[in-house]
Amino acid sequence: MESTTMFLASLWGPAILAVGVGFFVSREHYLRIYRDIQREPFALLVFGMAGIAAAIAQISVHNVWNTLPEMIISFLGWAMLLKSLTFMVMPNFTDKLSDSMASKSTLITIAGLVMLVAGGYLTWIAYFVN
Questions:
Q1: For the residues of the chain, what is the DSSP string, one character each?
Q2: Which of 8, 119, 120, 129 can pair with 16 through a Cys bridge, CB separation 3.0 to 4.6 Å?
Q3: What are phi and psi of 55, to 5 degrees?
Q4: Do residues 66 and 5 touch, judged by C-beta distance below 8 A?
């Protein structure tokens, strides 16, 4: 595996793992954060711009789809770009979607599980393999 993949896994893994744990330990806190960000136009602008810049930087150095860790890292870069663009281009849609998702407890549980698995896997690959 290339060193860029390992470096990005060492960044993404613990961050995603922590949020996944947070979804289960402090669910209401995370829902409140997401709802509050949606109601602040300046926050959407700042997060959207920062997310676009970070996503383009990541995609520029890592757009590799050969192994599972490479696919996950590349997917995260593209997903961050799409979400950040949505924040910037369609803030009303983002607001309605977040309200809809927040009302569905099952989706939050599934998202938390996906984050636990992906974050745990990337953390394991980055810190315990090799």
A1: --HHHHHHHHHHHHHHHHHHHHHHHSHHHHHHHHHHHHT-HHHHHHHHHHHHHHHHHHHHH----SSHHHHHHHHHHHHHHHHHHHHHH-HHHHHHHHHHHHT-HHHHHHHHHHHHHHHHHHHHHHHH--
A2: 119
A3: -65, -45
A4: no
Structure tokens at 107: 């989706």
Rounded distance, CA 116 to CA 14, Å? 10
The domain locations on the chain are: 3-124
CA dist 70 and 2 (Å) reads: 9
Q: Taking a C-beta distance cutoff of 8 angstroms, is the pair 32, 51 a contact?
A: no
Supply the pTM of this predicted model.
0.84
**Rounded to whole angstroms, what are the CA distances from 25 to 18, 30, 98, 110, 111?**
10, 10, 20, 14, 14
- For residue range 54-103, list pLDDT tens digits in order: 999 999 999 999 999 999 999 999 999 998 998 888 877 776 776 666 66
